[in-house]
Amino acid sequence: MTRSQKTEVQARFGATAEAYVRSAGHAGGPDLERLVAWGRSTGASRLLDIATGGGHTALAFSAFTPTVVATDLTEPMLLAARAFASGQGMTTIRFLGADVEALPFRDAAFGAVTCRIAAHHFPAVPPALKQVARVLLPGGTFLLQDILGHEDPELAGFILEVEKRRDPSHVRALSQAKWVEHLRTAGFTGLEEAVVTKGRPWEEWTGRMRMTAEARAALDRFVLEAPARCREAFSFTVEEGRIRAFTDRMLLIRAHKSY
Ligand SMILES: C[S@@+](CC[C@H](N)C(=O)[O-])C[C@H]1O[C@@H](n2cnc3c(N)ncnc32)[C@H](O)[C@@H]1O
After folding, report:
1. In the chain, what are the domain boundaries?
2. Per-residue pLDDT, 2
């Protein structure tokens, strides 16, 4: 029997929680800096970070936000994130188990909500956005970052296969146009968008998900045998037949819940 999407998420991230806490790509970069700059300008006093993973976004926002609540579906991830935040001297973030589709908060409880590099794991985006809109104050800010989906079908199919082979809990990466459509439908306005690139060192990126040697070898073969335009589109670097790195594009969106 195939595991449900959420069970798959818990299995994958439960086994790799420590690696996510240590991941340099999650700990910082121009993407997190942009979210933080947007966040500072909101002046929100209560922030919810959904799908907090290793807790890096929650930690960054706690430097200037009095109340930060961080939620995630995966219990070991929350334990690792809590220990990480405490180790950084930040003991005020409240970590809580919660599915994004059933957030255990009253309506209009937060001035800002963040969701960074996680929505590609959600079974569906509209129910998640409905919850985000519900827990935000009217006029409140939603800061989203996720892997940007490609508009070109061949390139989109190629990178989806790469992602799913590495992590079967990856569902899809939406295009910019699709995100804008979903956000507007959920009642968000005043959208501001940015795209930044993020380097993915191959050994670290594949290693973090603890692939078997066979699955990793098959993934390498899939990439190396793909049409050259696929590798070029994601700036794959290959030296002496070995994949070294590639580049993801990240979509960042600032949106406001309408009054
Ligand atoms: C890559 S990590 C997130 C990284 C983190 N936000 C950061 O800024 O470093 C993805 C996280 O999404 C969580 N997740 C996936 N599906 C979820 C869901 N339906 N509800 C809540 N969390 C979910 C996983 O458990 C995992 O911890």
Report:
1. 5-149+169-199+249-257
2. 54
Q: Does ligand 1 lie within 6 Å of residue 163's CB atom?
A: no
DSSP state string for 94-130: EEEE--TTS--S-TT-EEEEEEES-GGGSS-HHHHHH
Question: Residue 90: is it exposed, middle or buried by C-beta count within 10 angstroms (0-12/13-18/19+)?
Answer: middle
CB atoms within 10 A of CB 142: 24
Residue 1: per-residue pLDDT? 41
CA of 210 to the centre of ligand 1 (A): 17
The whole-angstrom separation of Cα 227 and Cα 171 is 23
- The structure tokens listed for 81 are 């994130």
CATH architecture of 5-149+169-199+249-257: 3-Layer(aba) Sandwich (3.40)
Distance 117 CA to ligand 1 centre (A): 7
Dihedral sign (CA 203, 24, 119, 194): negative
The token duo for 73 is 């579906």
Residue nearest to atom 27 of ligand 1 (CA): 53
Ligand 1 close to Cβ of residue 26 (< 6 A) = yes
Task: Kindly report, residue by residue over 156-190, the tens digit of the pLDDT.
Answer: 999 999 999 999 999 999 999 999 999 999 999 99
pLDDT digits (tens, 9 = 90+) for 61-88: 999 999 999 999 999 999 999 999 999 9
